[in-house]
Structure formats: structure tokens, C-alpha cells
């Protein structure tokens, strides 16, 4: 099929690449010439494992990139995958969506039926709004010449290709027969065994071809829009809940790792998203919880559980600072090493992460901060140009004259740290592992005082491992 994907950001570039890999003639459109040039040079415009392999293979064959909206005129499906940042009141700012709708409207043709698919995470009712804008700018009749469907993305950064090719679910919000038919045709190769087989050589990960197919779920447009928010808010609640249990364990005893494992054995609860942390962050959870809260309040039906999860999450960021204060008495003049600035491993995304919150609080209390992240330092520095912190190119250097080293992001390479060497650099050998990710035994062997989250030290297993 002929597809246009508007937006070469995270969602658009991954979606466009996946559609092209499935044999669709896909053009990615973005107003940022830098992103388009990168794609045309065969480079991924974003850091995401696997994209560097797929983009050069596909560009110029089934994947095209341009700053012109003209390919919209021939497209059968046009994806809108532009940003929806949080506005001042917490609700999603739709200015990019509206500008995109206007550009699409100017090019819609009455020669053929066009499906406009909303990939961006948008508030309930946005498909309706876009329908009105398209009708106004194109002069065409909605549902006769075009339809707007909701098709939310569920990509996790760091695993986006895996999620786009082997999704748990594909959700389509539409009641328009032709809209539904064109979306089924588009996604046919994603959900057929043949599609899986053709794509498998592109991946670095393995997939069980006998695994059940993705759930292809059709519903009305508003429900599809809500499914995205409802899912992300639910996951945020789940993490906030285990983090609160971690805090409880620290005062009454118990091991949050075992509690998560025990709870997860109930198939109604499941093991996922019960891993303790310094709180959730990233480009989706804060924005999406804020939007759904603001919408629910606007309609007088506040999601109280989500509100509590958001408050609990900030409390969790602060809890890390409090733990440091408990150990070091005062932070004034203390040197703190931070391992991890990105909101999770395998991404360079350092926007609004727990690291920036925690670092701000440390600096406010007079601490000196030195940081490391395998991928996130560039973005973090660009977003916080005036922050008086030191960037270390080697994780070991975060220990230099430090009174504490705090692991915030569980990058695999932090498991390989030479703790003896790090200990030799530290002023006070103390490691706070907010993800219970490191091996306490190895760290203790290096004569470093190890502290995890939600687990009393006397509950460590003989090999010192507290997480799976
Ligand atoms: C999320 C959703 O998972 C994805 O479906 C949606 O499309 C976009 O938002 P993402 O933001 O990439 O994806 O990251 P995710 O892996 O969900 O993690 C979000 C945050 O929760 C991170 O800060 C992560 O470290 C934290 N987290 C996750 C925990 O603290 N504990 C967990 O058990 C899981």
C-alpha cells in the first residue's frame, strides 16, 4: 500500500520503518530537514537498537523521506505521528496535530479514499477534531472521501522494533467499513505468519514463530484513544504501588523483591512492572498520566487512583534523596556520583527523567554531582546546559572522591563495573542501588557499603543477589 507517515520522531520513524519493512511504499515526512537528511543518508534519526540496521536496508527501496507533504495526495493511509507535549495545564498541546491536519487537508484528493490514522497519543475526541479540520481545509466530505481512525502506539523505547513487529495488540478505533478494511490490509503482514517469517532475518532478537499472533482489536474511536491512556496510567499505578511497598518494607522489614515475585505468581497480577525504582519517568508516563488526569477532572470524573500514583512517584524520587541524607547526615559539600541519566536503559532519552529531579534536589542541598550515562549524557546536557554538574566518560569516574554512588538507571554495563577500582577512588565507599540491579556481594567484597531499595540488609541471600 502507499503510506505516508508524518513525523520522523520516535514514533513516526519506527512506525514508518516497520511499514516499509513490511513491503508498504512508505514516505516519512518531517519539517526538520536534519531528520530527513539523516534518513536519506541511511541513518536512523533516533537512537533505538535495530534502527541502524533496518533504515539503510530500506531507504530508497520502500522507505522514503521528504520535507514535502505532497506524497499525501496519493497515499491510501496517512499516519499522524507528531508530538503532543504537555501544555501548561497538564493537558496535551495539540498545536502540531492541528498544523499537520491542515497540511494533510490541503492535499487530500477526491480520486481515492484516504484513511488518516492517529498514531500520536491524543486526548479523547481528537479524531473528531481532526475530522472537522480535514473537512474544512480539504472541502471534501468526511466518511465519503476520507476517515480518521485511531491507532495508538504501544512502543517501549529500547524495544520499539520488537514491539512494532511483534506487538501484544494492534488497536484500531473506527466504525467505518472502508477504514477498517484498509487498516486490516495494512497490518496483514504484521499479523500473518508469512509476515513474521519474512521479517525475522532483520532482527537481532529471536521470536517463537509458534507464539500466538498479535491480538487485532477493533473498537470505536474514543475507546481506542482511551485504551492508550488507560494502559499507561495503569502501568504507572502498578510501579508506584510496588515502590510504596518498598518504602513500607524498609520500615517494617520484608523484601520487596520477594513480595513482587510472590505477587507476580498470581496470573491476574503478573510479574511485569513490579520492579522497584526511584520512580517512573520518560516521555510517556508523566505526559499521559497528566493528560488523563486533566481530562478526567475537566469532565468531573477524576481518576483518583492515577492522581495518587503521580504523587507517590514524586515521593519516590525524593525518597532517594532522603536515603542519602540518612546515610551521609548532610549533603552539603558531599560529592555524589550518579549512574544513569536516561529514564531507562537502551535509550538516550533523558527528558524529564528521575535523574533531573534527584540531581536538582542534591544541588539544592549543596552536594557536588558527577554523572555518567552510556547514551543519555548528550541529551541531558543539551536540556540542562546550566546545571553545575560534571560529566564522566567512564562510570568508574563517578566514584572519584565521592561520598556515595547512586545507580538510577540499570544499564547492563553497570553490572561490569570494577568495584575494587571504584572503591579505591571513593572518599566514603557507599553505593545506593535504586533498582536492586547490582550484585551486593561483589560490591561488599570491594568493602563498599551497599544499599538497595525495599530490602533489609540481613535479608540478602548468601550469594548477595536480591533481584532476578
Ligand atoms: C511506555 C509503555 O510501556 C509503552 O507501551 C508506551 O507506548 C509508551 O510508554 P516507555 O516510556 O518506553 O514505554 O518505557 P517503559 O519501559 O514502560 O518504562 C517507563 C518507566 O517506568 C521507566 O522509567 C522505567 O524505568 C520505569 N519502570 C518500569 C519501573 O520503575 N519499574 C518497572 O517494573 C517497569
UniProtKB/TrEMBL annotation:
All copies of domain UDP-glucose/GDP-mannose dehydrogenase C-terminal, residue ranges: 337-440
Residues binding substrate are: 154-157, 228, 273-277, 344
Instruction: Give the pathway annotation.
Output: Nucleotide-sugar biosynthesis; UDP-alpha-D-glucuronate biosynthesis; UDP-alpha-D-glucuronate from UDP-alpha-D-glucose: step 1/1
Q: What is its EC number?
A: 1.1.1.22
Q: Which residues form the signal peptide?
A: 1-20
Q: Read off the InterPro entries from this record.
A: 6-PGluconate_DH-like_C_sf (IPR008927), NAD(P)-bd_dom_sf (IPR036291), UDP-Glc/GDP-Man (IPR017476), UDP-Glc/GDP-Man_DH_C (IPR014027), UDP-Glc/GDP-Man_DH_C_sf (IPR036220), UDP-Glc/GDP-Man_DH_dimer (IPR014026), UDP-Glc/GDP-Man_DH_N (IPR001732), UDPglc_DH_bac (IPR028357)
Q: Name one GO molecular function term.
A: NAD binding
Q: Family assignment?
A: Belongs to the UDP-glucose/GDP-mannose dehydrogenase family.
**What is this protein identified as?**
UDP-glucose 6-dehydrogenase
Amino acid at each position: 500500500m502507499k503510506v505516508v507517515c508524518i513525523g520522523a520522531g520516535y514514533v513516526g520513524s519506527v512506525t514508518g520503518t516497520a511499514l516499509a519493512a513490511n513491503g508498504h511504499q512508505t514516505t516519512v515526512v518531517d519539517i526538520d530537514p536534519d531528520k530527513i537528511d539523516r534518513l536519506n543518508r541511511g541513518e536512523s534519526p533516533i537512537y533505538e537498537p535495530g534502527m541502524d540496521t533496518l533504515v539503510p536496508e530500506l531507504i530508497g527501496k520502500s522507505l522514503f523521506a521528504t520535507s514535502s507533504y505532497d506524497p499525501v495526495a496519493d497515499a491510501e493511509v496517512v499516519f499522524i505521528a507528531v508530538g503532543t507535549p504537555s501544555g501548561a495545564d497538564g493537558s496535551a498541546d495539540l498545536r502540531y496535530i492541528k498544523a499537520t491536519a491542515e497540511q494533510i487537508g490541503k492535499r487530500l484528493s477526491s480520486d481515492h479514499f484516504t484513511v488518516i490514522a492517529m498514531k500520536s497519543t491524543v486526548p479523547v475526541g481528537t479524531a473528531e477534531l481532526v475530522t472537522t479540520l480535514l473537512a474544512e481545509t480539504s472541502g471534501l466530505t468526511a466518511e465519503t472521501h476520507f476517515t480518521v481512525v485511531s491507532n495508538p502506539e504501544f512502543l517501549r523505547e529500547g524495544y520499539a522494533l520488537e514491539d512494532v513487529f511483534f506487538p501484544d495488540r494492534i488497536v484500531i478505533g473506527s466504525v467505518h467499513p472502508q477504514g477498517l478494511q484498509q487498516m486490516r490490509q495494512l497490518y496483514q503482514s504484521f499479523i500473518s505468519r508469512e509476515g513474521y517469517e519474512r521479517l525475522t532475518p532483520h532482527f537481532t532478537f529471536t521470536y517463537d514463530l509458534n507464539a500466538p499472533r498479535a491480538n487485532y482489536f477493533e473498537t470505536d474511536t474514543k475507546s481506542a484513544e482511551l485504551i492508550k491512556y488507560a494502559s499507561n496510567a495503569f502501568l504507572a499505578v502498578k510501579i508506584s504501588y510496588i515502590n510504596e511497598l518498598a518504602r513500607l518494607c524498609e520500615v517494617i522489614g520484608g523484601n520487596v523483591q520477594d513480595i513482587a515475585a510472590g505477587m507476580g505468581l498470581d496470573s491476574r497480577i503478573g510479574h511485569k512492572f513490579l520492579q522497584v525504582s526511584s520512580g517512573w519517568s520518560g516521555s510517556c508516563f508523566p505526559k499521559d498520566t497528566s493528560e488523563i488526569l486533566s481530562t478526567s477532572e475537566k469532565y468531573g470524573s477524576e481518576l483518583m487512583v492515577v492522581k495518587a500514583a503521580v504523587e507517590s512517584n514524586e515521593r519516590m524520587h525524593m525518597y532517594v534523596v532522603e536515603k542519602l541524607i540518612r546515610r551521609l547526615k548532610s549533603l552539603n559539600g558531599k560529592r555524589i556520583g550518579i549512574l544513569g541519566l536516561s529514564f531507562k536503559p537502551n535509550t538516550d532519552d533523558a527528558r524529564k527523567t528521575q535523574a533531573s529531579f534527584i540531581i536538582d534536589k542534591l544541588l539544592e542541598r549543596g552536594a557536588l554531582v558527577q554523572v555518567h550515562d552510556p547514551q543519555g549524557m548528550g541529551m541531558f546536557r543539551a536540556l540542562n546546559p546550566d546545571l553545575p554538574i560534571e560529566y564522566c566518560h567512564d562510570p568508574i569516574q563517578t566514584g572519584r572522591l565521592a561520598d556515595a554512588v547512586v545507580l538510577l538507571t540499570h544499564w547492563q554495563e553497570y553490572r561490569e563495573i570494577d568495584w575494587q577500582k571504584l572503591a579505591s577512588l571513593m572518599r566514603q565507599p557507599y553505593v545506593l542501588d535504586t533498582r536492586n540491579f547490582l550484585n551486593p556481594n561483589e560490591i561488599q567484597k570491594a568493602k563498599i557499603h551497599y544499599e538497595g531499595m525495599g530490602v533489609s540488609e540481613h535479608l540478602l541471600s548468601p550469594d548477595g543477589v536480591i533481584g532476578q
